[in-house]
Structures are given as C-alpha cells and as structure tokens.
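Field guide to reading this record: the first block holds the primary sequence, the second block holds the structure written as discrete tokens, and the final block holds curator observations. Each block starts with its own label. This record concerns asparaginase, catalogued under organism Amphritea atlantica.

BLOCK 1 — SEQUENCE
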Amino acid sequence: MKRNILIIYAGGTIGMQASEKGYVPVAGFEQRLRAQLRRTTGASELPAFEVLELEQLIDSANLQPHHWTELGGIITAHWQQYDGFLLLHGTDTMAYTASMLSFMLQGMDKPVIVTGSQIPLAQLRNDALDNLLSSLMFAAGDAIPEVCICFNGRLLRGNRASKLKSSALDAFDSPNFGWLGQAGIDIELHTELLLQSGTADFKIPDFNPDAVVILPVYPGISARIARDLLSNPAVKGVVLHTYGAGNPPDANGELMAELDNAVRRGVTIVNITQCLQGQVSQGAYATGATLNRIGVIPGRDLTLEAAFTKLHFLLATQPADRVKGLMIQSLCGEMAQ
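BLOCK 2 — STRUCTURE
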C-alpha cells in the first residue's frame, strides 16, 4: 500500500513569491506544487500526500512560541491518519521549531521531516523542489521515528541542527552529531544513529513567551544587562551563552552576583558554549567553576536552539523541582549522554 504523507505548509521562502517589497508568503502552495510535479519526470513514484496550509502563514523571523503549540496540535490531531509528516517552514527559525517538536512529540513512531528552501519554488532555478522531494521520500520511510531537518540532501536530527549559512544552499548542519542520512544518487540512512520507536508521550503545552531569555556574554558585558533581563518576574529560565568550555567573565563580580541571585530565586540557568563544536566542561577552568558554585546547569553540547526550546518545554510541562534534573538528561537525542 502506498504510504500517505501530510504536508503542512506553514510558510517560509519555499512558498514565497517576489513582490515590490521583496519575497512575501502567499497562499495556494498546493496548486503550485502539484503543477510543478506534473512537469517532473518520475513524480508517480512519490508517496501519496495531502497538503494542509495554515490560514495565517508564518514568516519565520516572526515565529512566536504559540506557533509551536499550533504546529504540534496539528500534527497530533492528524497523527493516526498519516504515515509521516512533512512541515514546510522558513529557514531562519527552522532549527528552533524542529527542536521544540522533538520535545513535544517524544515517543514517536513515524517521521516528522522539516524542510524549506533558500530559493522559492516559484523561481526557475531553485533548491525548493529537491528539498521537498527528498523530504517526502524520507517521510515515507518507516525507519525514522524522530523529528529531522532535511536540507540540501542532508538528513539531520532536528534538535542537533543549526542554520550555519545565511544564503548558501547547504545552510544546515549538525556540528556535534553525525548526519542521519543523505539523499544522493541513492537514499542512505545511518540506522545506527536513529532513535528507537517508542510509545507516544505527546505534550503540547501553551508557552509563556517571557519564560526563557538568552544571555550572551561578551567582553565588557555589564551586570545591568543581566539585571534588566532578569527583572521580569515571568522569567523562569536563562540560556547563558559563554566562551569556550563554558567560561563566563567571573572577574565581573556584579554579574556573577546577578546570576547567583537569580538561581536563589528559583530561575533555572543553563550554560552552553558559543563554539560550534565541542561542549561545556563547567569547571575545567576556574572561571567555569564559579558557575558550579552558583548552581548553573552545564548544558554540555546542546545547540542554542535545543537549549532554548528544551528549557521552554520543561518549564511549561514540569514542576519546578524537576526541571534541573531533566535538563541534564538526554530526552530525545538532543545532547551527549
């Protein structure tokens, strides 16, 4: 029996068209896609698919946490009707959405593939069609029980991926984890890297957009920056973006005091590195050891996107006393064990 895929068109460059103001999202993607496929040799070999288009398309630079609730709700509402899912999404925040979906859809037993493009499908020369066709083929497989990004022939674990290039066609990679597969002359899967199918434990919460903030360190950072970020009582989590192996400017006593005070108030602070490869070894240097004394959680090799979304997800679904323990556990392959 031919497998049936739900394509969710959420917006993004893949479905945009040129306007006087630049590329803009436009409705009617399914008609344009099917017209394109009628002109494509071998399209009959593709899995059957249906297209669900959001009423309000998202320019990914305008993504908000409530969009994750909407997208997760759509997928779970249709979970039993389809063999796999393909989410078309803008590239700027694609890794955030893929990461969040991986946390919301834990225990999944079928593929959720996220893709988009750097050049719209409407353009004569584009990467949209290849990304979409490769993603459809991966979504039709029964051996990928996780959320992935498929882009430029690479199949990446969604919560390990980041957009590394602003305009190149190979925009996405997973610097700290191997590719799960690739679409070249043949479709290849590295099954030894894939998660195992599980029992669905889906949680689609509502999010407080103020609950998590990102605090990057830089030479000369003032304690006032942290104080202003943390002054909002709605803030319950901080992703601290530090140097190297997780080193903050610990000579800045006022800044360290702000972090200490926040932890004492019950704010969860997770430390990740600004480096693309490697991980936080909090305490390898004396500066990092300061964070251990304060009670900051080492985020190991979490990407910024995964750290931000995981903290958001846990704060929205777990009692406060469980968040710290779960942040240091790999829930769905997002960090080294």
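BLOCK 3 — OBSERVATIONS
The chain has a mean pLDDT of 95.
The two ends are 38 Å apart (CA to CA).
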